[in-house]
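Worked problem 6 (solution included).
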Amino acid sequence: MSLVTNRLLYSLASAHGGLFTTGEALAAGLTYRQMSHYVGTGVLERVTQGIYRLDQYPLHPHTDLIAVALWAGPGSAISHDSALAVYDLGQAMPAMIHVSVPGSFRGARPGVLVHRVGLPPAEVRIWDEVPVTSVERTLCDVAADADGFLAREATQEALARGLTTRARLGRAVSELSRDRTRVCRALGVRLPASGES
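Solution. The predicted structure is:
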């Protein structure tokens, strides 16, 4: 493998914790034949259809989550309990990977729970190389869908670590939740109204 190709592969892989898509590789100038050759020689690992991992890149602790986000494509983000795990909030140990995707997405995979929602760009972050819903969106999603203990524990940790504020969380609850009282109760905090700071 040439130095130029090695740099190209590393550049592709560094954008997503060691992974990249077939589309990204083709756009960068690689061919299907080259990718097949590199898989055969152990330079690349085929993680799943259309997603590759550069073998020499350090293994990322959230490789599985990054692979799911790449599989789901643009406009998607790891969410719900899986996002809590990325942020290291609460004792989240989801049995399935949660991913929020645009409403037009039609894929399905074993072990992946797909949530079809429109995620505005402001509700998506890159955290530890993982596309993930914002802390506020994550807490609202968990409070609406999960047991109250996990939501309360994660909320207290997020506030204590400065990952969010009561004001930002209050605005998010007002914008995202149909039942503000129930979500606030699940989060275990008294939040200011959306107009208060």
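Discussion: The mean pLDDT is 90.
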